[in-house]
Sequence to fold (504 residues):
Amino acid sequence: MFICSFSGIAQNQNALHFDGLNDKVNLPSGTHAGMTTNGTLEAWIKTSANNSEYRGIVVRSGYYGLFLIDNKLSTFVWGGGAQGATTYNNVTLNDGIWHHVALRFQIGVTNGTQMYLDGQPVGPAITLDVTAVSNNFQIGCNTTVQFFNGQIDNVKIYNRALAPSEINDSYNCLSVNSAGLNGSYNFNQGVAVGNNLAITTLSDQSGNNNSATLSNFTLIGSISNWVAGYTCTPNLCPTPDGFANQTFCAGSTVANLIANGQNIQWYSASTGGTVLNSWTPLVNGAIYYASQTTTNCESVARLPVTVTLNAIPSAPTGVGSQNTCAGTVANLTATGSNLQWYDVTSGGTPLASSTLLTNGATYFASQTVSGCESTNRLAVVVTTQTPPPTGLAVKEICTGGGTITVNNIGITGSVIKYYANPSGGTSLPFNTPVVNGTTYYASQTISGCESVNRHAVTLILHNFTSNVTAPNPQSLCNGATVASLVANATPGATISWFTSSTGW
Fold:
């Protein structure tokens, strides 16, 4: 019998004792109606027997169930790629004390299934898959094997995944929303350790008329019969709930721990001790304990949380000077995981990938590994503008009677292009003839980035087609210089003299 002391209907207060040999209770198909995607199983158990290997508590074979495996709370995955048992190894339950056990499951949801012991999540969260076997629920076994040895009371089956706080409330004998309750068995039947041979069914209090059938019970004496059950007293100082395993980054403190409740306080011991300051550094692998304080009192039981600290990664690596052609943050490069870019060396807000880069500015990259972001950041100085090429503003070219093209302009730089306009437009083919007195505009391209600004050069073309004539020979006085030589040329032309008929 499981009953909240405030209900005012504390009557037989019974439970059923299972002998571990062949006792079982068979539930009708109505108890698993609608449980195709999620649900919750819960029960109170008490045993001092050596329940070696598998022992079924509440099981729908092939689908989902609660077991003891070597006296430890367990569940089993029948389908999918990760079949097998999941066991909470920290506690053995054959201690002769009443314990509340529960399984909250969401089929096919990654880590959506969790066991609970005495109102708190225990063991790792798992991914539950199922087989296509059509079996009904049983209490105290798994089909015709794995029989439980001990007492079971107040079994409830829901076709919804109860919230963790609801499971904690059930443990603390507080009311829980009955939505989705397919079967509720309080075991308040028969006479404890009396003659109960006439009772062959287990009554359903859910209102769904899903009464179950007793099988193989002796129903006389203290074994395999109705016995004194568990009397549940509401806990007005309930334990907070939360995840039993929490992962943080190195350097985290008690302030980072999470528990659901009022006025949460953290301790380093399950009982007694001193409240930890919020700035107390967390220790990898340590267990911390949370209490909550309501208007009535501080909870006696505390939520245990095992802490895992992941290392802070180093800064990502990469080139410290990058040319991005007037690009955005998305054009920056670094080697690392889950990169984020900032405009400050520490703190700040990650920049959106569409953020325009500023020429000459420095940007900083972090990486995140296992949920931990690097404290140090890679600094990258950005160049978004290539300078224009250099050269004369006015350039004179002798045509020699031939065609002069933009290829003959001869501006100095890297990968030169010529345009007819100071901006925009399409670069001129190198074989484009130039026009005397016209201004042309040259860009250069470095590391794939073409200069926005262009160098302007005005061309002056000279067409010298006549040959120079001179008297030959010429008689000069001793000590004369080249300047004394005489030649006939176009008026205004500059005469140059050479010592050979060709070359310079």
Observations:
- The chain has one helix and 33 strands.
- The radius of gyration is 44 Å.
- The domain at 2-232 is CATH 2.60.120.200 (Jelly Rolls).
- The CA atoms of residues 70 and 490 lie 116 Å apart.
